[in-house]
Design brief:
The protein is α+β, with helices and mostly antiparallel strands and 85 residues long. The protein has one domain: BolA-like (GMP Synthetase, Chain A, domain 3). Helices cover 35% and strands 24% of the residues. It has 2 helices and 3 strands; from the N terminus they run αββαβ. α1 crosses α2. It is elongated and about 40 Å long.
Length: 85
């Protein structure tokens, strides 16, 4: 399973989103410091879920990081999050 698929699977399970887009943007960062040769290191996530209602921006980001877990987060170099209700 690809890293993109793992991210999507974990976020769907944790937030039951009404909208979820996970984009692997690694190709745009090829050759940059910290970007592994195999890619799968830079991701953009758009997540819309009522589970985020009432949470601050920081709390939303923390919730996503917790849902992904330290093992998966450790394999990602950059994670851009667009989170809303």
């Amino acid at each position: 399973m690809s890293v993109r698929q793992e991210i999507e699977e974990k976020l769907r399970a944790a937030f039951a989103p009404r909208e979820l887009v996970v984009e692997d943007d690694s190709a745009s960062h090829a050759g940059h410091s910290g970007a592994p040769a195999g890619g799968e290191s830079h991701f953009n996530v758009l997540l819309r879920s009522s589970d985020l209602s009432g949470k601050s921006r920081v709390a939303r980001h923390r919730a996503v990081h917790a849902a992904l877990g330290p093992e998966l987060i450790g394999r990602i170099h950059a994670l851009a999050l667009d989170l809303d209700v």
